[in-house]
Model the fold of this input.
Amino acid sequence: MAYWHWIVLGIVLVIVEAFVPSFTIFWFGLAAVVVGALLWIGVPMELTAQIFAWAVLSCAFCALWFLVLKPRMRDKTTAGISREGVLGQIGQVVAVPGPDGLGRVRFSTPLLGDDEWPMRCSDPVQLGDRVIVVDITGNTLVVSRKPSSEVL
Done:
């Protein structure tokens, strides 16, 4: 194949990416453009070598994206995301769980507009124990007992 065949294939694949929101086809298109560029600058390759180079570059670009770049691009802010803002917060037990499994936990600063929340805890807790929010179920916090060695 001539170099321009690979470049056109790469451009077509990149355009297809605009209609298929996977962000995977883009890397196959980028690999095709790279193979076309290598042919354009004069690197001699047979058709099988071209296809092999395209496959290897496509896999390398996909691996680079999914294993290195995408995890670093994750939004780590909790602004506007109530769940992520609540997880990991530490409160104090003000009512131990009753027979229905519900208790109450109080936070030093209000969470989502309230400083006391119903809670469920699988660990045995007593009044005054520190707990950490690990999940939210409906409007009930799922907490676990914070070990005393971690209490500040």
